[in-house]
Amino acid sequence: MSRNHLQIIYSRQDTSPEPVILEVKRLTKSFTSADSEQTIALKDLSFSIRQKEMVCLLGRSGCGKSTLLKLLAGFIKPSAGEILLNGEPLHHPGPACCMVFQEDALFPWLTVKENIAFGLANKPMTRRQKLQEVDRFIDLIGLNGFGSYLPREVSGGMKQRVALARVLILQPRILLMDEPFAALDAQTREQMQSLLQDLRRQFAPTVLFVTHDVTEALLLGDRVLLFDKNPGRISHDIKVGLPQTRSVDNEAFLRLRTHINQQLKEE
Ligand SMILES: Nc1ncnc2c1ncn2[C@@H]1O[C@H](COP(=O)(O)OP(=O)(O)OP(=O)(O)O)[C@@H](O)[C@H]1O
Ligand SMILES: [Mg+2]
Fold it and tell me: What is the pTM of this model?
């Protein structure tokens, strides 16, 4: 299989009625270190994502997954190429693409409630409306009774729930998640995965989700993009095509997981 060619595996005819929301066109990002060494983190990356799709990104360490998310969030600028949101160049800063990180990025001096409310500060809503909205999200993430706790007073899983609520309350068009559950124990991680599935059913955001866990990618994703390293680019675009309720014991699931693991080993 040519490594320079994007492989589309198990692709059925794309009959999805949803419009394309995000287009990445020949995106390149290089970094120059202090001693003038150049690293090409991403090279000529092109793909598009449909509205409400959940796309998982898998690939070895250093292949540019976080760099891609940072470019989409506008934390860094592309060296070349374009990012289009609904056909228009993506403008930053803006609430269109919001990020949830691996380690909780909550404000330690604000309570759970204040952290969730933070992004609403400039919204044209009354104080009462904001409070109601925050309460609704606290309820959704199952943290009733913890609103006045500080981040250090709640568990890692709870902090990630708050991080998720804090972003979802802004109704981002695209939710960017960089290994959001990687630091959690297995049981909490499973709870977070099913919370994310519930929230997706309710809010139907478009999601780009970075993980190192092939099982997690196949449990959650509609599509999986495998990244190649040096320079970072997409090697495989895989439509998962499994039923919405997935089981890790299912034969099709296991076959796909073995296949992806093999591809990752070869890279
Ligand atoms: N600010 C930076 N300055 C210089 N090089 C950088 C910078 N950020 C990332 N890189 C380089 O770009 C490449 C891609 O890094 P990136 O963090 O995107 O990888 P990743 O796929 O997210 O890896 P991991 O799975 O370990 O999180 C790496 O070689 C990294 O060293
Ligand atoms: Mg990373």
Answer: 0.90
